[in-house]
Design brief:
It is a single chain. Helix content is 29%, strand content 18%. With 222 residues, it is of the alpha+beta class. Strands 1-2-5-3-4 form a five-stranded mixed β-sheet, sandwiched between helices.
Length: 222
């Protein structure tokens, strides 16, 4: 079984800041006209695509200690980034029923709710895999591989933008995104500390310094 990635949606990016005419004139005075975008996110956009995580569990006997550790790690990945149900599929001939049942219990012990574990069956072909297959879908941030630029930007008389401009940056950014959707919307703010707010108000009302302990303050009365 292989994972198939298809484009899901492009991440929206904020519009470029407006540049003054003076800055534009200074930056382009010695250059020829530039037709390729100067922004790396336009040349090498990051997209969020669905990815299927798959774990195959051996069919012989019950759930081994190795399989149990693999399932624990698989459950952590699902709880962190999984979307929809986690599927446990066994051969239609019931040969993996015991392993599937033990795997479901192990996943629940690892924190996966029972109502999010979907049990299923598959037709095992002759000589094909006959174990239990766990899988779930998530979203991952990707960008196209960096192109090979045949030209040497060091001797480009037009001072133009080369094909791989900013590509490594975009690759690194896509790899660092914990949640690909963070690039298109901000996370909800956590609640403020009511205890700290009350302490500051009480100190302020009493005419005391409201800075936290160890925080330097600047005297503006002089």
């Amino acid at each position: 079984m292989t994972a198939q990635n298809t484009p899901l949606f492009a991440l929206r990016r904020p519009s470029a800041p407006l540049l003054s005419a003076a800055v534009l004139a200074l930056g382009l005075s010695a250059c020829s006209s530039v037709t390729t975008p100067l922004r790396a996110d336009l040349q090498h956009p990051i997209t969020a695509e669905p990815a299927e995580a798959i774990l195959e569990i051996g069919p012989e006997g019950g759930l081994s200690s190795y399989d149990a550790r693999q399932l624990d790690a698989f459950a952590r990945g699902y709880l962190k980034a999984g979307e929809g149900d986690l599927t446990l599929a066994q051969p239609i001939d019931e040969s993996g029923a015991r392993v599937a049942a033990e795997a479901a219990l192990r996943l629940q012990k690892a924190g996966v709710p029972a109502d999010q574990i979907l049990r299923g069956r598959y037709e095992a072909g002759e000589g094909g895999y006959t174990g239990v297959v766990a899988s779930y879908f998530s979203t991952m941030a990707v960008t196209e591989p960096c192109p090979t630029d045949p030209s040497d930007p060091n001797i480009d008389p037009s001072n133009g933008v080369y094909l791989s401009f900013g590509c490594a940056h975009q690759q690194n950014l896509a790899a660092m995104l914990e949640d690909p959707r963070d690039a298109e919307r901000a996370r909800a703010a956590t609640p403020p500390s009511a205890d700290r707010r009350r302490a500051v108000l009480l100190q302020y009302a009493a005419g005391q310094d409201t800075a936290a302990e160890g925080q330097e303050t600047t005297d503006t009365t002089e």
